[in-house]
Design a protein that fits this description.
15 helices, single chain, mainly alpha
Length: 308
């Protein structure tokens, strides 16, 4: 097949009979190359899967691994985390970034303990009803923990499907209805195979079909990839969002939280003032942390991680 034989990007290649052609090689590749990650092991359970999904959002595996291991050793069940103050979750989150995820995970643990007897629910609708759980996380936990058939659309999967099936280099900045339809169309009929496909396509995007420097020579579906067969046309959509950090309010927030995580007693504002020279930006960052529930203000201009 030549590039001129390929359907246009508006007609996904993999929805017209090519779906099963993608399944077998990707699943076989996954059998050989899947990383041995603790949340993929049988003893991780649904709670281990859920914790990993919260931590892995916008954070690489290498940074998540040590924090995940410590977290699971301290809080092996949702009830263990729910019994602690939410600030302890923020403290244990360390420097993973986006610390509101820690508060959301704590909130989910409390709800699981109160509503489901401490067991992560199996039903997708029940998962979606938990605080802090969105469409992606509910599908991922149902699929990876319980072997159910759901489209799991993280950044890696979306990129693999955009290239292999739709013929474009990058997916849109936000998940679209068309992507959801394509992901559902590509799901194997068998539940166990569908769950395996979700994990395999995610791993392919993480290790081979990466955002930059994709390794088509190692890709099990390079011969079927619509983007490659079309000559790898350059991205012509909206600019891709960058993730600047230095000098931003996010950096200031991180520095403030680092001081509060290390402090056993409430921290005076004068101590927090030392972390950043710009008083306006520092105050804005601290106010934002308070508004997000990550920092609790006390009398006498002191601050601590939240206790309730």
């Amino acid at each position: 097949m030549t590039a001129t034989d390929m359907p246009s990007p508006k007609t996904p290649h993999a929805t017209t009979g090519g779906a099963t052609a993608l399944h077998s090689p990707v699943l076989a590749w996954f059998d050989q190359h899947a990383r041995d990650l603790p949340w993929r092991r049988p003893d991780a359970g649904a709670w281990g899967v859920m914790v990993s999904e919260f931590m892995l959002q916008q954070t690489p595996v290498s940074r998540v691994l040590p924090v995940y291991e410590q977290w699971m050793a301290r809080w092996p069940r949702p009830a263990d985390l729910a019994a602690e103050a939410p600030g302890e979750a923020v403290r244990a989150w360390g420097r993973l970034g986006y610390p509101r995820r820690a508060l959301r995970l704590h909130g989910a643990a409390v709800a699981i303990t109160e509503r489901h007897g401490g067991d992560v629910p199996r039903e997708h609708a029940q998962l979606l009803a938990l605080p802090g759980i969105g469409e992606y996380t509910a599908a991922a936990v149902a699929s990876f923990a319980y072997g159910q058939r759901h489209p799991v659309l993280d950044t890696n999967v979306r990129r693999v499907l955009a290239r292999a099936a739709t013929g474009i280099q990058y997916p849109p900045n936000a998940t679209t209805a068309a992507e959801r339809r394509l992901a559902r169309a590509l799901l194997p009929d068998d539940e166990a195979t569908a769950a395996r496909w979700a994990a395999a396509s995610m791993e392919l995007g993480a290790l081979v079909c990466t955002a930059r420097n994709e390794d088509c020579g190692r890709c099990p579906v390079a011969g079927l990839c619509a983007w490659r067969l079309a000559g790898k046309p350059a991205h012509d959509g909206p600019p891709r969002r960058g993730q600047t950090y230095a000098g931003t309010d996010r950096q200031v927030r991180g520095k403030l939280l680092a001081v509060l995580r290390e402090g056993v007693a409430p921290v005076p504002r004068a101590v927090l003032d030392r972390v950043w020279d710009d008083p306006v930006q520092r105050a804005r960052a601290l106010d934002g942390l308070v508004a997000d529930g990550l920092v609790e203000p006390l009398e006498n201009d002191r601050f601590r991680l939240p206790t309730t």
